[in-house]
C-alpha cells in the first residue's frame, strides 16, 4: 500500500470491507434501491470493494479484473433517478459512520462519492 493515500490512511482492505458490508446491508433494505439491485448482493459487493480500493488510491484491483471502470456506461442498464442517487448516498453516509471512518477522511470520501453518484444519474424523476 502506498502511504499518503486515503486507502492507506483509513486502514486499507479491512476498512474498505467493513464499509462495503455496511453499505450493501443498507442497499438491500432500501425500497428505492432493491428494485434495481439483484437479490444476492455478494458479487456486486465484491466488485465494489475492488473499485473503492482503487478509487481511494490502493492497488488497481478493479481494472485488473474488469478493465477500464466506465462506471457511467456500466450503470446505463439501470434507471438511476435523483431519488435513487439520494438513496445510494444516504446508505453510504450511514455506512461511513458505522464503519468508524474518521474525519477528515469521512468527508473526503463522501465528497468524492457524491460527485461520482451525480455522474451516474441517467433518468429523470417519474
Ligand atoms: C454496479 C446502482 C452509484 C460503483 C451497480 C449495479 C447497480 C448499481 C444496480 C449493478 C448490480 C448488478 O450487477 O446487477 C447504483 C445506483 C447508484 C450507483 C442506484 C446511485 C447513484 C455508484 C457509484 C459508484 C458505483 C457512485 C462508485 C463510486 C459500482 C460498481 C459496480 C456497480 C463498481 C459494479 C460494476 C461491474 O459490474 O463491474 N450499481 N450505483 N455505483 N456500481 Fe453502482
Automatic annotation (TrEMBL):
Keywords: Heme, Iron, Metal-binding, Transport. The keyword Transport applies. The keyword Kinase does not apply. It comes from the Bacteria. PANTHER family: TWO-ON-TWO HEMOGLOBIN-3. Belongs to the truncated hemoglobin family. Group II subfamily. Pfam families: Bac_globin (PF01152). Its cofactor is heme. This is Globin.
Amino acid at each position: 500500500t502506498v502511504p499518503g493515500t486515503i486507502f492507506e490512511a483509513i486502514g486499507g482492505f479491512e476498512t474498505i470491507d467493513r464499509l462495503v458490508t455496511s453499505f450493501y446491508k443498507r442497499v438491500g433494505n432500501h425500497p428505492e434501491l432493491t428494485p434495481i439491485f439483484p437479490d444476492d448482493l455478494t458479487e456486486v459487493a465484491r466488485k465494489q470493494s475492488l473499485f473503492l480500493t482503487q478509487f481511494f488510491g490502493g492497488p488497481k484491483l478493479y481494472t485488473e479484473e474488469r478493465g477500464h471502470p466506465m462506471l457511467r456506461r456500466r450503470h446505463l442498464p439501470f434507471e438511476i433517478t435523483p431519488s435513487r442517487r439520494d438513496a445510494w448516498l444516504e446508505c453510504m453516509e450511514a455506512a461511513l459512520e458505522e464503519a468508524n471512518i474518521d474525519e477528515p477522511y469521512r468527508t473526503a470520501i463522501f465528497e468524492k462519492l457524491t460527485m461520482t453518484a451525480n455522474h451516474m444519474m441517467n433518468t429523470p424523476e417519474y
